[in-house]
Predict the 3D structure of the following.
Amino acid sequence: MADAGRLARPRVVFALLGALVLLTLLLTPLGEVERGALSSYSAAPGGARALHDFARRVGWPVARRTTPFVSALDSTAVYAVLDPSVLLTASEVHRLLDAVRAGASLLMVVQPGSGLSDSLHLRRSSGGATVPRAPAASCPDSLNRHGLITWPDDRVYSFWLTWYPASATTTFTHVVRDTTARGWNAPNLGRVEGGEDSVPPGVRVTPSDAVRPPAAVGFPLGRGRVVAVADPDLLRNDVLRVCRWNAGVTAVRMLAWLGASSGRRLVFDEYHQGHGTHADPLGASARALVATAPGRAVLQLVVAALVLLAAAGARPIAPTPRRVVERRSPLEHVGALARAYERVGATRLVARRLVRGLRRRHAVGRARGGDDADFLHAVAARHPAVAADAQRLARALAEPVPPDQLTAVGDAVAHLDQELEPIR
């Protein structure tokens, strides 16, 4: 029992709780990593800096665009619009697709409800499935170090495309392992039997031999080309860096098919990732007040008004604190009022107050009109049982009552209050 008492001491209990919390923090695995923006400026696990830097290091012309698509675009460039956080407007979608039809290329991530995806008739699945991995022999352990992004069973999970143009005859990325193909309604894909890895990554797939819905497709659009990726995770930094996930090789094949390997400029759209100059009401107001003559005049008037307000509000003498008078409680107020009435002999005022209260409780209809004496005469006429009490109150209203009879006036009011029925 003595040992149990020592263990129950606060210092022992709190020390054990602290050790338990520390052990929990050390052994709890990391939760799901926030993916973040798929921006070529971002070197975070969920960014796209790896794709940009690889293209630049292999000698492909690379640029970043931080302005909106407000004018005619270069029809020889390859544009990368990667899951933008700011959706393209209808006019921007029109200019971008016009450039593609004229010969440009487009690498895009399908976004549900976006104008660009809707214009190209692209839809993706609502759930994910696993993606085949590269052969183990082709990926040494040094190239398979995981970052912060990972999946269960060391397999990439990806959305797949459920609807896309019938001209899409080439898959550039993994085909997802969805054996039931629920929700698969692509018009150009058939279904044949085959093993789990019957279609290797990067193989050209036609409508006659497609096995599973693709996670990305490439198709011509006018004189240009488009590659649509169903899942932005396939292009993130910490996914491209793992060799056996095969996402890096597939991303390079996409860019090469779009023409980046032939010297065409690869332009990453960063304006719709939040970079560049965007609408800023506060900044525009500040610039208008500082950089324009009318704005400076308004600013001077505001400063002058503030100075005038400060001068008018200044007091040469410090204000004295406001006196707070504590009010009496209701019972104290009644007692004080009774003593005041008694001191001046205000018996008629007392009677009038009592009758007014009686009228508020019982006088309705026609009895509400007239003065207090008329009310008491009406009560005496309609209720003979309390006529004497009503007459006593009428006399108390007309003439002073001796102090020894004032109690009888109160008793008369109490009797009327108990016996009187409301006058209708």
About this structure: Confidence is low (pLDDT under 50) at residues 177-210. The CA atoms of residues 163 and 186 lie 5 Å apart.
